[in-house]
Amino acid sequence: MGQAALVAEMPVYPVVEVRGFCKRYRNQVAVDSVDLSIQPGEIYGLIGPDGAGKSSLMKAIAGVLSFEGGKVQVFGIRIDSEAAAERVKGRIGFMPQGLGLNLYAELSVEENIDFFAQLREVPPGLLAQRKRQLLAMTRLEEFRDRPMKQLSGGMKQKLGLACTLIHEPELVILDEPTTGVDPVSRRDFWAILAELLRERGITALVSTAYMDEATRFQRLSLMYEGRVLAAGEPDQIRQAVPGSLVEVTVEPQIEALRRLKAKYPQVEAVGPVLRTFVDGVSSKAAREQVAASLDDLSVEAIQAVDSELEDAFVALLRQRKLAGQPAAGAAGTPLAEPPASDEVAIKARGLTRDFGIFRAVDQVSFRVIQGEIFGLLGANGAGKTTVIKMLTGILPPSAGQGQVAGADMRRARQAIKEHIGYMSQAFSLYQDMTVLENIRLYARIYAVPRSQLKQRIDWVVEMAGLQGVEDRLAGKLPMGIRQRLALGCALVHRPRVLFLDEPTSGVDPIGRRRFWDILVQMARVEQVAILVTTHYMSEAEHCDHVALMYAGRIIADASPVQMKQALQQEAGQLLDIATDRPLRALKALEQAGFAGVALFGRRIHLLAKDPQQARQQIESRLTQQGISLLDITPRIPSLEDVFVYRVMAREKEARSQ
Amino acid sequence: MTHSTWNSSGSIYLWWSRMAAMTSKELLQLARDTLLVLAVLYLFTLDIMMAGGVKMDLSKATVVVHDADHSPASRELIYRFQQPYFQLGGEILDQKEGIRLLDQGKALMVLDIPPRFQHDLIQGRPTEVQVRIDTSNTVLGTLAASYSGQIIGQYGFDAALQRMGLTAEGLAAVPMFVDRHRVWYNPNQKDSWFMSISELLTVITVLAMMLPAAAAVREKERGTIEQLLVSPLTPVQILLPKVVAMTLVILLGTALSLTLVIKGIFHAPMKGSLPLFFAVTAMYTFTMSGLGLFVSTMSRNLAQAAMMIIMIMMPIILLSGAWTPPEAMPVGIRQAMYISPLYYYIEVSYDILLKGAGIGILWDSLLGLSLLGSLVFGFGVWRFRRQFRS
Amino acid sequence: MKPTRIKALAYKEWREILRDRLFLSLAFIVPVSMMLIFGYGIKLDVENIPFAVLDQDRTAMSRDYLHLFMDSRYFDYKGHVQSERELEPLLADSKIRFAIIVPPNFQENLKAGRPVAVQSLIDGTFPFRTSTSKGYVIAINNAFNGKLLAGFISRKMGVPPGQAAALVEPVKVQLRYLYNQEIKSLWSIAPTMMMFILLMTPPFLTALGVVREKENGSIYNIYSSTVTRAEFLVGKLLPYLGISIINVIILWLMAVLVFAAPFKGDPLFFFLASVIYVSCTTGIGLLVSLFARTQVAAMMITVVVTIVPAVLYSGLLVPIASMDAASQFEAHLFPAMYYTDIALGSFLKGIGMGQLWGRVGALLFYSSVLWIAAYLLFHKRVRT
After folding, report:
1. In this complex, do A62 and C224 lie within 8 Å of one another by their Cβ atoms?
2. CATH number, domain C49-168
3. Under an 8 A CB cutoff, do A432 and B32 touch?
4. Which of A93, A319, A357, A554 shows its CA 20 to 30 Å from the CA of A57?
């Protein structure tokens, strides 16, 4: 009945109506003639890389940013002045970008919620009730009195959501709520958001840099450099891009990759699978073309699959010639096998670090070989950054030993520093200096000889693809280029060991691909040992070796292939399920008690010891709910499956204790 | 065993090369901050000009008179209260009105001449003139008391001589001595020389503490410090360039201020060696920067740093003799002054700029300054090293 | 303006301040320690002036004369020198501030009734100190001269020495120091320091508090909510205003109890005037915070707009009355001067609203201008 009442009250006009929106900062155009229309009760997505103009658009709709051109109408009120903006703010909830930045670090969880409630004049009785609900749903109940600054990234975002919803707005605007949040917490966040919005019939405008979150939206706009590339339902957008995706498992992979790259511009190796996007043809034709070019190799499996939004986005940019081609040096780099060398680059033994009574890192041991890419994975706050800080000599360990580049971590800190490169989580170059000035500074800090200085700087510019932006201020560059600049600075002295702490957070797919091309090149050709942390599990697939951290400990340490095998042995076969209504299906399957149920793009993954039996159960369950099952395929799990399963298992364990 | 194509440990050349790179980085960043550059420029020019216009002497203090005698003698005394120190603010009829004027701040002094003033003088009987002074402002009060005492004393003396029939020529035979003052270094006692130089020294102090501290806290707040910490730079190589860069900026500003304002507008003589003055200024800036950096290592954000800097800086400025005569300080504070770098710097600056003193005379102050400087900076580096260890 | 929202804002701000222990303690420690240090430290009295002596006569009379200087509390005797050449480096190095040179045959000439010239060399770098020292020297010389003259007259005219002394000095001066009878600079410094400290600290607290919110992005909570501009400004600044008002009370108590400065005025009037003054200085911080985008910039601008006027144009060191016209004009532009008058008036003169209404009005005007300007400049829908 509540729903019915809401429906009856629903306005007939679109909640948000944007026409020809333009925003300039000084003389730089940030958003250029964007149209947008959001219907009541809809979850509308803005997807695009950093710098695409999402934030400007959202702020303008929230009435906190003035703009130069076009028309913005919210709840039928035209937002063209501060006074007009004030009239709609009571009905809007806005959460700006940045992990916990809009919250008050010194205040506790409850105090934060109370403040937002009082600001919005929520009556005390109602506040107590809503607070109870929201805290229960976000599972922050037990952290009520904990200061916000001590929450993990995922918890901060959930608290931010609770604060934004405390006055039950009719429209919420969330600016990249999941950027910088680990995969498990991200899923959690979306599930909570979806439920809250559905329950209360709230309209939402949400932006994200993660393409795989597109399924969460009813409709979305794909943005790039201030313009809308495509808009509509996620499937429409995907299908509107002419071409098909072919996945192939083939031996030897290097040779296959070389051949495919020569022929197709969009080829990607994800673990043992090569994904190739073939422009402009049907799926059948695409499969045949790929198979033909690999005919003399031993093809284990080949199938045409539905492309994900990320594939479509990359293809769109490529087809419209908006994004540059991969850097010349990195294009076609063969993904050689992991190095045969056994020269140890990094060795950690029993590394431990305490902050007061809190143990951030507990007995961590691993080794990285020269020329290897080593991935350190884990949720926010698992201790990854602390491990890196100890190995790079920023933070002394409480216990344990480490060796980096052949030198002891405790005794030869200075020697280590000269042989390592480091890129920290936050952009840590000087934003008020130009690209060249930054590179030159680091070249001189790392004592590149004067005679080689120019040559080395040129090398960095070329390698990192920074041609054309040499004299721009680092702070004014899009995120993707900034991160490549940071990588270039970390590589300017040709270090033997490279530490990268979430280097691609918030970078667009193309930017991330280029970034990884460089990393692979450095590892394979220059034999640099790379230790990297990331929240993008598709990137972790590129690693030769992966360690999974949870609550300060390493809970798994193996190659990606081994990890997947271990998961299959332990939890069973992975089933990849396609339905017409993924979000409802997800809920149904979760309730049915399957293990490891999780949403991947538009598909649902779950693990089953007995696939045959599970298949039947799924079918009947979904039919019951009126959801039509499109396809069930057994699959090799991805690293993301491994991560989500392992971390969720641990969390469940921790909660039950 | 090392793989790198060059070895970068130890060599002196490398040390300097890194220092130079970091220093030019600091300068570049400063130059990009337009607002900061404008503030620095303002402080070195307009601000010092304004300060130079301030006078610390009694000037045209209003005197009101209650004259109960109305005689030629009383009028003569009254007319001796003249500019530049005093000006007559009119006559009042009773004591109450005088108090009222003093209360309102409309007069600084009330001169009260008793009835029969002239009569008593002629008779050779002692008479008494009453002077009421508003001493709520000690400086003005003291000066007014001193000057009015001199004026009345001189008047009485003249009257006595006149009564005894002694003329100016006759005085030559009287056993008295003549006071010959010679005011050195600033013979016309121009306030602008003192005030502008004092302000310059204050500005140097403020900037020397704030600029490097702000730069250091900013690196911490923006996270750029991490990238430096993993580099082969030593803490000294991270901190010292900030000091060097800001010192350069301050020296430049000082040169600007000396030529444009202090010499250009106020015509203060530059008697001593300017290179020596700049060397001392560099040393002083170095010391104060060390203090600022020390503060920056203790604070997590700029708000804390700012409060602490004010707490340290204001006593140093006000108690070291920039604006008040240091000799009059109570013993305890005078001893504390010996650890204030500004105390030495002020002495040395006036000695060089106005008095033309050279290194032979100033070596002890310079020694004190350099000792303090290395101590403070060393302490700052030690704190910096420690703060990332916990 | 809804009180609930103002309360929410103020309460949140207050909690944040409370949790930042260092900041909170500095907010109170800085004013108190400044008061202590300056109260005991600033002395504008010219005392203990170091001097040296060149006695070329070395007779009983020259020693008598010089002892007048050595025994004075205004002077600090540093020693004898042998020649004039030795004096120069001492003066140049600021080891001494002035020197007395007694010529040869000082006693002989005086006894013989011949005039003698005594020289004093005074360091002119600090004109205030120079003129005060000069005044002291003149006073001592006059006293010595008076004695000489009285002796001469009593011998020549045959009058008793006592009468002769009266003849030489027919007009006595009765100096009455009003408001601060013992010319304790502490008494006048304590109220002036209140002015100074309350001008320095509130703008820093305020500017950094607001800019911090701007810099880390939580200001968007305000932008996007229905809180009005006025509510935000009032709520945000109430805690800072509160801290400053507490500081007013603490400083007042210190002035009265620790420095024993007399308070003759009306406490309620003074308190209210102080609150207006503090709202002025808080307003300065607020205005700065609206212009500055980063905390560094906020800090520098605050320094520029407060420290300099606080030291130079407030009457703290330099009496406004003795400034030239241009400086006086500048002094009138800052609120400090008016409050100095109010503080001194309330403490030492015991005057109140009747005499000081103009000053209070000026502060009120100043404060309203600042707050209105801040209100007009603050926008919830921004350009960048």
Report:
1. yes
2. 3.40.1710.10
3. yes
4. A319
